[in-house]
Amino acid sequence: MNKSSVLTQAQFDELLQWLDHDRERAGHKYENIRRAIIKVFAARRCYDAEELADETLNRVARKARELAPTYEGNPALFFYGVARNVHREYLKGLSSRPVSESAKIEDRSQFVAWATFDSKLEGSNDARLDCLTKCLRSLPDDQRELVTAYYEDDKGRKVDSRKALAQRNALSVNALRLKAHRLRQSLRRCVQQCVEITLRHESRVGTICV
Amino acid sequence: MTELENENLIRRFLLGELSHGERERVEERLFTDEEFLIQVDAIEDELMDEYRQGRLGARESDGFKQYFLVTHERRERFEFAQIFQQALAESETSRARASSARRAKGDTSTFWIFRRRALAISFAIGLLLFASVAMLFWYRIYLGRRSEDLAYSARPSPNANKDQEDQTGKDGRRSPPNKNENRPADKDRVTNELRILQKPKAGGRQLSQLAIVLAPGAARGEGEGVKRFSLPGYAKSIRLELILENEDEQKGATFEADLQSADSKSLLKAASLRASSTRNGGRLVRFNVPKERLPAGDYQVVLRALGPEPENEMTSRYYFRVLDSPEKRRSN
Known about the structure:
The structure holds 2 protein chains of 2 kinds.
Chain A: H1 9-19, H2 23-43, H3 49-67, H4 75-96, H5 99-138, H6 141-151, H7 158-168, H8 173-209
Helix pairs in contact in A: 1-2, 1-3, 2-3, 2-4, 3-4, 5-8, 6-8
Chain B: H1 3-14, H2 20-32, H3 34-52, H4 58-67, H5 72-105, H6 117-152, H7 160-167, H8 183-197, E1 209-214, E2 227-230, E3 237-244, H9 247-251, E4 254-261, E5 266-273, E6 275-277, E7 283-290, E8 297-306, E9 314-323, H10 326-331
Parallel strand pairs in B: 1-3, 2-9
Antiparallel strand pairs in B: 3-7, 4-5, 4-8, 6-7, 8-9
Helix pairs in contact in B: 1-3, 3-5, 6-8
């Protein structure tokens, strides 16, 4: 598979323009499409799903100018079509490689995947936990109670306890799931920011001490 | 498709377990349904938690290890899942510790009972029941007392004559009736009705005997200390309860009662009557009179106590006036 060259700003702007005339909405749609493409490749057991997703996006972006005036329907489905082509090429590329090499690639990817989070965890677990505690405290009471009740380990009574929680909050089980997930995502972003700030502060202190 | 079926489909999609056709349908939905995309994200988080908690089956666990953590973003979220579960477990542990410490030292808070909703509701219902029963008792006692008060107010009071004089002008003419003039009659009517209401039921039917309590009076004459009452239509007979005030009277073995009209004409006689005790320790003689013998008008009862010796014979007089019945007054 030939990797496409880097995308220009103009091409990227044209892509967004095709997705939506409102730039903010276009950016939101672009992010959703990217997430969907990554999930497609991950479900098809591609170890470099993000790289393949970027390749898909670049190919569509380069065609956006000529597509926009004539294309009818939801542009997102065009991305899906291109992703399937990219996947086909990916499989073709894998099968053309010697078996030992492709196996090595898969092993390496898996190893890298596990090694990455293991090493990261050891280094900053305490700091992240402190940050998470702060982030949890910063949530309004009802939201904090909802997110902790939804995700706490209830020793195998998850279905019943979530049903009861949904009833208490006058939500369907699915609406509760989405609400809890959004809260969890906001906590994750909060922790990321908090850790960055903590690390910056620690490095400044370190410089002064030296 | 139900929520559960949808969830199962997504889980199998994420773990690479779907057939080609099923997988393509799910993939297409990822591009066209934003809520579905978020739902897939949410189930990814739940899979991560379940894997960390060791709650995935062997097949799911293998799928998770081999294919799930293939993206940078998922690995990051998996790291977060670890600290998130740790934080929740710590908060759960601290909650459990606090709760057991509270149980150990005994919760002395005054309103601890209200922390448990079910207990609080039971308590409120109990309180309400208790209040209702107490109100019922109080009402019954109040009714009884009021009945007695009104009944015994049928005695001419020592000031009765004076009250009547106050209403009569110096020239002997009665002053115009004021709005309080009918009060004694109203009181009597209330008394009578209460007494009827308090009669025990016989065979499910209300007894319709009306009891009138009378005290002996020295005075006689129109408007002087005479008790007045009306006889409602539902009263079939009248029981005159003649209070004995003279100790000597009470020693009499039997009594004779004679109902007389205003001009002392005898209307009804009863002999060999016996005195009974009242609840407040007094004595009275009961004299039953058919209602038809008491049309509206002034009456007196001459009660003669017949002692063992003729010199012990004593006579008391009880004066009363029967007014038109309420029904008749209304028709007039």
